[in-house]
């Protein structure tokens, strides 16, 4: 057991780069160190390690510093092991007595060393992989840092900046690495950018990033066939379920015509198609106008070379009304109804005109005086003897003419009034 501990202690100091086996011991950030307790005590006896900042007197036991509990271990021989050293670990260490061990931390350290950060973005968005370097007792050199990228690629800030632009086609850049900020910015991310990234300083310090790109998942897997007539337009649906998604590429092809690409540059479809991605990036639908019989067949929408959806289009030669008798009957009924209504309106209009004309004639005669015609008839022809014996009678015929008639006729239909005038002769 003692041999193992000794080998461990030697291994920690030799492999991590710490120099010196006694005070002072110099280490770099991120390394590990093993401090031996020189107290001659039994292994069963409790030994406490103490710690103080540089240039300060011993203050408190090491066990009271909670930030070191995950990185600190005390072995059976009372040796103290500290891993993942930081600049704040520099100071004086001792066990029970005042035989101090000075620990010096010199060099540069990645912030949040050995931390793994998960990041999710939609395609088309921007992502910042934040990585910075802090140095203690040493000056930072860009040669110490590098980025490991997906697909086993590696970039050094001061050497491979051209390679970085080529890999991301001008979409990626680093900050001022000379000041210790080696953060990586990627704009307009795509599904190809997904993967593991890590920022490294030297060989023992790094920060990890897991980047996930939310790509396009098609909202439909099956689309009902479309039936249109020549000259009409058709909308072939294709869209992502998440409206925030911005697919990098998508294509439409006409499967039944040797998989011809349907685009504005294709001669057959030139001036007849329209897409909507510029206004709504997640909408990949295709509008085809002025259809012909050659346009019928199966169309396929493919997103980012992965997911796809098929739409079958049928373009008939002409409209077959025999298959739509209800439409023909309905059209006939509508025509008959319109003709009937028009005839009724015309008849009522003429009747109203005739009545207005008749009323105007009646009104013109309201100012005329009523006319009474009187006819006096003296009846003669009797013998003188008879006339002498009977009273002479004179008959008067009075005819009343209604003023509302347009013309005056004296006939048998006219109303006659007779008066008897008696003449007595003496």
Compute the number of strand runs: 29
Question: How far apart are the termini?
Answer: 191 Å
Cα Rg: 57 Å
Shape: elongated
Report the sheet with the most strands, covering strand number, pairing sense and barrel closure. 5 strands, mixed
Can you tell me the residue ranges where pLDDT is under 50 for at least 5 consecutive residues? 1-16, 365-426
Oligomer: single chain
| Class computed from helices, strands and strand pairing | alpha+beta
Percent helix range? 10-25%
| Order of neighbouring strands in the sheet with most strands | 1-8-7-3-4
Q: Tell me the number of helical segments per DSSP (H or I, 4 or more residues long).
A: 4
Strand content: 25-35%
Query: Average pLDDT across residues?
Result: 75
Keywords summarizing the entry:
alpha+beta; disordered N terminus; 426 residues; five-stranded mixed β-sheet; 29 strands; 4 helices; disordered C terminus
Description of the molecule:
With 426 residues, the protein is of the alpha+beta class. It is 16% helix and 32% strand. It has four helices and 29 strands. The protein has helices at residues 2-16, 161-168, 325-364, 384-389, and strands at 25-27, 33-35, 49-52, 60-61, 72-74, 80-82, 91-95, 101-105, 107-110, 116-122, 127-129, 133-136, 145-149, 153-155, 172-174, 184-186, 195-201, 205-214, 226-228, 234-236, 250-254, 260-261, 273-275, 286-288, 297-303, 307-315, 371-378, 392-401, 416-423. It has a five-stranded mixed β-sheet with strand order 1-8-7-3-4, with no helix packed on it. Strands 10-18-17-13-14 form a five-stranded mixed β-sheet. A hairpin with a 3-residue loop joins strand 25 (297-303) and strand 26 (307-315). It starts with a helix and ends with a strand. The model is unreliable at 1-16 and 365-426 (pLDDT under 50).
């Amino acid at each position: 057991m003692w041999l193992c501990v000794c080998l461990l202690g030697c291994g920690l100091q030799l492999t991590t780069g710490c120099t010196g086996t006694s005070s002072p011991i110099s280490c770099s950030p991120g390394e590990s160190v093993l401090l031996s307790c020189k107290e001659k005590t039994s292994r069963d006896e409790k030994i406490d390690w103490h710690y103080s900042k540089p240039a300060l007197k011993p203050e408190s036991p090491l066990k009271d510093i909670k930030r070191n509990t995950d990185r600190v271990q005390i072995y059976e021989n009372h040796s103290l092991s500290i891993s993942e050293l930081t600049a704040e670990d520099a100071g004086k260490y001792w066990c029970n007595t005042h035989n101090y061990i000075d620990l010096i931390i010199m060099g540069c350290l990645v912030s949040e060393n050995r931390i793994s950060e998960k990041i999710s973005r939609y395609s088309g968005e921007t992502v910042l992989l934040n990585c910075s370097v802090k140095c203690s007792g040493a000056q930072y050199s860009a040669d110490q840092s590098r980025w490991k990228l997906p697909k086993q690629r590696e970039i050094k800030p001061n050497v491979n900046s051209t390679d970085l632009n080529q890999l991301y086609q001008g979409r990626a850049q680093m900050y001022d690495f000379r000041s210790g900020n080696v953060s990586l910015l990627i704009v307009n991310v795509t599904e190809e950018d997904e993967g593991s990234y890590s920022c490294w300083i030297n060989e023992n310090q790094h920060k990890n990033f897991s980047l996930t790109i939310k790509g396009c998942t098609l909202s439909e897997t099956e689309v009902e066939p479309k039936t249109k007539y020549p000259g009409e337009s058709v909308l072939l649906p294709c869209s992502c379920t998440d409206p925030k998604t911005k697919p990098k590429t998508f294509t439409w092809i006409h499967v039944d015509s040797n998989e011809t690409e349907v685009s504005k540059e294709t001669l057959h479809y030139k001036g007849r198609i329209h897409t909507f991605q510029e206004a709504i990036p997640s909408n990949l639908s295709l509008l085809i106008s002025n259809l012909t019989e050659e346009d019928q067949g199966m169309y396929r929408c493919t997103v980012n070379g992965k997911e796809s959806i098929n739409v079958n289009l049928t373009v008939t030669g002409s409209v077959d009304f025999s298959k739509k008798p209800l439409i023909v009957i309905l059209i006939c009924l509508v025509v008959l109804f319109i003709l009937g209504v028009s005839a009724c309106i015309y008849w009522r209009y003429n009747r109203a005109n005739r009545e207005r004309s008749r009323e105007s004639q009646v009104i013109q005669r309201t100012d005329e005086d009523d006319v009474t015609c009187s006819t006096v008839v003296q009846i003669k022809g009797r013998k003188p003897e008879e006339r002498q014996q009977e009273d002479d009678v004179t008959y008067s015929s009075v005819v009343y003419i209604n003023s509302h008639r347009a013309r005056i006729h004296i006939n048998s239909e006219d109303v006659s009034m007779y008066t008897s005038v008696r003449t007595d002769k003496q």
